[in-house]
Fold each of these.
Amino acid sequence: MRALVTGGTGFIGSSIVRALLGEGYEVRALVRSGSHTANIDGLDVERVTGDITDYSSLKRAMRGCTQVFHAAALYSFWVTTPGLIEHVNVDGTRNVLQAALESGAKRVVYTSSVAALAVPQRGIPVDESTPVDPRQIIGAYKKSKYAAEQVVLEYAKKRLPVVIVNPSFPVGPRDIKPTPTGQTILDFLNHRLPAYVDTGINVVDVEDVARGHLLAAEKGRTGERYILGGTNMPMKEFLGILEAITGISAPRVQLPYAPLLALSYLNAGWCRMTKTTPRMTPDTIRMSRHYMYYDPSKAINELGMPQTPPEVALKKAVEWFTEHRKS
């Protein structure tokens, strides 16, 4: 079988590519012109130049593909071009689904995010059935992922066999950008994390997330969501695991929320003037007020998604960042 992967050069996408190759698939990757391709260099992958905002390139890329894994997205909490995130994440998703429908794809897996789910309250894990109040969704990125899911549900009603997966906070090798979670690991390794905030995350091995995509293609129900998550933990515990792995002392100082939010606004203003990217934004600080806990039981029970211990996943991430150390 031949599968198309959009976003195949990225963190999750390149892990999907490797998982597909491991199962004997012929893999085709949609690659934007000028993209950094280190994550798939040396792999037996057919590359097709294109962009999810370019419908004609998607039509070409999907020829002969029975399965489509749509992992491409603009994942950023700092975009200064108005409408860009919605154009890529929502309009681009519509393009992918329409091209898949017209090409007769047998299965489409859409990589959403826990960002599209309900905001966890009082540390209670959210699952796929927790009602979502769109007014509580924080920031353009999260709003775009929620809107893109509504597009997916439209196409499921058009009989496109599409499944939604919602990764939580993946860690592991090839976090090349890196993701916000990966940046925290990198800052820790570079001794640039003097303090932490009172928050919590759901940590999952990126290779488990990739496997979850393949399992969703095989066993997932059309129009259903599956949280591809792992272990819920406070940030203090997350940093404690990193300390045990690396021998680097974890920060002991916990930052209060209010002054940190004020500082994030000042930082954002400075970055707008200097055309740089902030390490923290008002949106990310607002999100940090919540323990971002999720319940992956549905993916575990229905799909058989594996659950690698967070210590193992974080060790792999540390080893990769150490080998590819950058600031």
Note: The mean pLDDT is 91.
Amino acid sequence: MPENLFKVKKEEYMLPGNRACQGCGLSLAYRYATKALHQKTILTIPASCLTVLHGLYPTTSVMIPCLNCTFASTAASAAGLVAGLAATGQTDTTVVAFAGDGGTYDIGIQALSGAAERGTDFIFACYDNEGYMNTGTQRSSATPLGALTTTTPILTKVQHKKDMLKIMEAHHLPYIATTSPAYPIDLYDKFVKAKRIVGTRYLQIQAPCPPGWGYPPRDTVKIARLAIETGIFVLFEIEDGKFHFTSRSKTIAQRGRRLPVVNYLEKQERFQKMSMDQIESLQKMVDSKWQEYQKKAEG
């Protein structure tokens, strides 16, 4: 049982009336992440859907201090905050960078890699909605094979998604974890744990996006659960180099049963032009990645 099941803070740090889209996977995850981080935290975020959620100056819907930064500089901004807090003796304040996949996989990867190599003491959380959703659903390197975007309108994306988790693992971080809004207690626990650890910590949140992925807003949690049931997205932690499955993925690993990826794909309009060859290629990739994770878990 998750250690914080009965310890989720009652205080709300993300207020109602924010400007997120109906059914936004990010907003569900962000609510529990901010509860886990709570006080003594400073956020930094780039131009993104999260900027929209926070609101237009001078008002905001989030009750944690936040610095808005340029698209490419999220990790550099976090490093600056860490240095400033250390210089003023505020060593009990956690710095947390939140960026989308565009600001993590693509535009922000240089600053993130540099900070991770130096071991700068902050949490970097990537909410992955698999495209540049804030600016009209353009393709990113996190967009999966076969997905339609406004910059791949005819042939779909023909490359597999970049393995950002493996890239971050290569930096030998003290803590890496994946989370999903479909399992909020697992998400909460991982942010609580990350807050206690020193060094660069990386968390990845799958953030289903109704307008970008093409499904009814009421189905966000259903889509997020299907991603885990099919192995498209896997819940795990890597702590000091040791890998282990968590939450629902742990149960699936023990039982050895996953749903075919088509069960996940058929629920989303963005995959409506996906070919059978692409579906087979994606299934093989998911199977291969799952076997890799199982070997890591076995030690």
Note: Residues 175 and 193 are 9 Å apart (CA to CA).
